[in-house]
Structures are given as C-alpha cells and as structure tokens.
Amino acid sequence: MATASIQNQFFAPIIPPEVIVSEYDNLDIVIEMCDVLSRVNNQSIYVIDYKQQTFLHVSPHPLFLCGYSADEVKAMGYSFYEKVVSPDELQMLLEINKLGWELFYSILAKERIYSRISYDFHLYHKNGHRTLVNHKLGVLRLATDGNIWLGICVVNYSPNKMAGNVIFSHSELSQYYVFDVISKKITPHIPKRMTKREEEIFRLIMQGYGETEIGERLYLSVHTIKNHRRNIENKLGVNNLTNAVAKFNLSF
C-alpha cells in the first residue's frame, strides 16, 4: 500500500470539521496536559487532528514510538503505521476504523463527545521486538458543527493474548458494541446491573487499588473481594479486571 493510500483510507470515513485557523492558537494547554498525563500514568498519548488529517502531538513515552522519536512519528503521521504494524493487522485497523466512525456518526452530534473505542494490535519495534498494545481512542474536542476535530489516543500494554478485542462504548448509553474481527460481525451488549457493593469495589479497582487494599478499606476479606470481582467480570462480560477497566473507562 502506498503511504497516500493509507492516509486516505484512515481519514476517508471522517466528515471534515468546521474549524477556523485562530482556534489552533489555544492548544498549547492541551498539548501540555497530554504530556503531563503521559508522565503521571506512564502511558503513550498522542492527539489526532481530523481537520488537517495528521498528528497534532505525540508524547515522548517510548511504548508507541517503537524506537523512533516523538518528532519523527509526528512528522510521519499515519504512514508511521506502515512501518510498525504488519499488513494483515493494518487491514484490521482500517476495518475497525471504518466501523468505529459508522457508530460514531449514528450518535447525536451533541453526545459524540462521550464516545470511545478500544482495541488491541501489535507494534513492531525497530529492534524487531513485537508488543501487543491496547489502543483507546476518544474525543478530545468537537468542532462547532458536531464533527470531531481532535481525538486523543492512549496506548498501553494489552492484557490479552491476541489482536482484536474491539469495543465501542459511550458513557451515556446503556449498551456497548463488540466487533468480531474474524466474523466481521458487530454485537450490542447490555451489561448486567451491578449491586451497590460491586459498583463500590469496581470504582476502587478503576482507581488502582488491589484486592488486599480494597478489603482493608471496606472491612471485607480478600476472599469476599475475589468473589465480588468474579461477579463483576461475569456481568461485564470480561475475563479479567484490566479488560473491564479498558472497556468502561478511558482513564485519561
């Protein structure tokens, strides 16, 4: 695939946002906060500019960079993916991209800010090392016409064993969507309602507390916390807590 083709395919589903040039003058604080969050949370963060169809900013965290500098990745834009993603998974990313935007545009413009998508794929480092990462994309800023202007991407190590695991969710909707990259089918899911105790434990999990710490805070045994954890996983349809957090929380 030619670089221009990849660029065009990634941005083809996007409705160009209406943004005036002067709005770019107020983005320094956005870039600064992205770098702060990258350092504090020890994760890669980059910002996509859907108006200019390029990377607005790339944090210096090494995970996403694959041996390149942040400036090099920013300059390459989406052609970077051709260097660090295998052809078959690059095609998968294009399919996920198309699906995600179809779902995004099915939502009322004023509610699109709450949309996010999460999926896993492999990155190939310059040294040949392959790493499975989880990639979350959310809306950073909408244009006045309701179309996406800036998107924020967070890259972490994936807890899974294979690429895919595509989940589109919306914080204001009661259901989320799962895309099977093999069958190409998308399935809506409605999470089972958690009890108040399960919600309390899940909030603590999302805040980074371990089972022993949660038990001490709530005066419960670790065994009880483990049972609640299993119930949470079953109700959310995941096989570990990291996936549960990835599914329902973007932790920017």
What letter string, H or E per element, gives the SSE order? Answer: HHEEHHHHEEEEEEHHHH
Q: What is the straight-line distance between the termini? A: 33 Å
Q: What is the architecture of the largest domain at the second tier of CATH?
A: 2-Layer Sandwich
CATH class of the largest domain: Alpha Beta
Structural class of the helices, strands and pairings? alpha+beta
What would CATH call the homologous superfamily of the largest domain?
PAS domain
Keywords:
40% helix, 10 helices, 2 domains, globular, 252 residues, single chain, 8 strands, Beta-Lactamase, alpha+beta, Arc Repressor Mutant, subunit A
Topology:
Layout: H1 3-11, H2 28-41, E1 44-49, E2 54-58, H3 62-65, H4 70-76, H5 80-84, H6 87-105, E3 115-124, E4 130-142, E5 148-157, E6 164-170, E7 176-180, E8 185-189, H7 196-206, H8 211-218, H9 222-236, H10 241-248
Antiparallel strand pairs: 1-2, 1-5, 3-4, 3-6, 4-5, 6-7, 7-8
Explain what you see:
With 252 residues, the protein is an alpha+beta fold. The chain has 2 domains: 3-189, PAS domain (Beta-Lactamase, 2-Layer Sandwich); 196-236, Arc Repressor Mutant, subunit A (Orthogonal Bundle), CATH 1.10.10. It is built from 10 helices and 8 strands. The chain is 40% helix and 24% strand. The protein is globular, with a radius of gyration of 19 Å.
Briefly summarize what is shown.
With 252 residues, this protein is of the alpha+beta class. Helices cover 40% and strands 24% of the residues.
